[in-house]
């Protein structure tokens, strides 16, 4: 499951320049413990299901039709969003199959404007799916795309909690943690199979055609597909207490979305695309983080950006590939340091810079640093916008209006990008 790569807590907590992002959530009332075990994402050892485990228990669920939202805080519902009235034509933007808590369903239904149409890009078909050597399929731009531009948006095929739960009542005593995980995955798959059975044939076929990098760890096919293709929507959807303003739900309480087109985007540690989720249209947006030329492949970063190449490869291991992006191939201790220190360094430089915006030497240092940042692909990170804003301001102060134009335009594009997060 991909992490929200622009959601580093450091990035949000340290700089006070633009307004903090807020993810305001209602706080559900606490409830007594339910007899459920939850499965985190990541690597799982295939220890096999214990011989004495009786896996024949019937899967039981709440099925939620229409606008019903009066569920208890711990109830999980299988529901279609936007809800579908069978006597009317299906929503042209599609319907998402969701395994969500009743509270989340109520939250979605109470979102102002819900269910509005999904945002449309400047022109249709700004990208296509094509095979890529050593990557399976990938997504490619069909036209030049500007920073901050919406490339496409879509209703997810499936939305589930990232750490899914299953009943643990029948787990034999003395089971090792690995075996418990296998049982949980087995039980979770039953629920997911049920969710998939509720989908239209076309959307179920699209779901089942997605890549699965978890075929050999005991994960069922749909759970494997979710773990390979899910985008975190932790800034917008999660159970339990709301995160502090500007923070996101922790992974074990957050939701994730599997998409038809978006989930075909491959990974790079130098991404050019970000995803965001809008509750009112119940859709994922995919937006350019830098200029993309027609024919270029779109890339998303599946893991953390501010770590060494070795740590990035470790984090990507569950996806079953070794990243060969330019940042990984050309990794050096100095470039690792650039990434690890990026947030702190930008914070420091911006604090220094705003004290004296007419210091030409400082501006030159900033421009040199920006060159290194861009070469490493870190201009895809939201904190980069503070650098851009400072450079633009300093150049304007120093009368370098022609040079400032580019940075001021970039800053404007970033303001729009950040609004979506
Ligand atoms: C979310 S899917 C991306 C789309 C996928 N390539 C497909 O054919 O549907 C993730 C999987 O794509 C492959 N993949 C993604 N990024 C890659 C990369 N940079 N290099 C090699 N394989 C990659 C891996 O198999 C990974 O488990």
What is this entry, summarized?
This protein has 421 residues and is an alpha+beta fold. It contains 11 helices and 15 strands.
Walk me through this protein's architecture.
This protein has 421 residues and is α+β, with helices and mostly antiparallel strands. It has two domains: 9-319, SET domain (Beta-clip-like, Beta Complex), CATH 2.170.270.10; 332-419, no CATH class. Helices cover 32% and strands 16% of the residues. It is built from eleven helices and 15 strands. It has helices at 9-14, 102-109, 177-197, 201-208, 221-229, 309-316, 326-329, 333-355, 360-375, 384-397, 401-419, and strands at 36-39, 62-64, 76-81, 96-101, 127-132, 136-141, 150-154, 158-161, 164-167, 231-232, 255-258, 266-267, 273-278, 283-288, 299-300. The strands form five sheets. A six-stranded mixed beta sheet has the order 2-3-4-8-11-10. Strands 7-14-13 form a three-stranded antiparallel beta sheet, with no helix packed on it. Helix 10 runs antiparallel to helix 11. The longest helix is centred in the last third of the chain and has 23 residues, at 333-355. The protein is globular. It starts with 8 loop residues before the first helix and ends with a helix. The model is unreliable at 3-35 (pLDDT under 50). It binds S-adenosylmethionine. S-adenosylmethionine (SAM) binds at residues 134-138, 210-211, 213, 228-229, 263-264, 266-268, 319-321, 323. Residues 22-32 have a biased composition (Basic and acidic residues). Residues 124-303 form the SET domain.
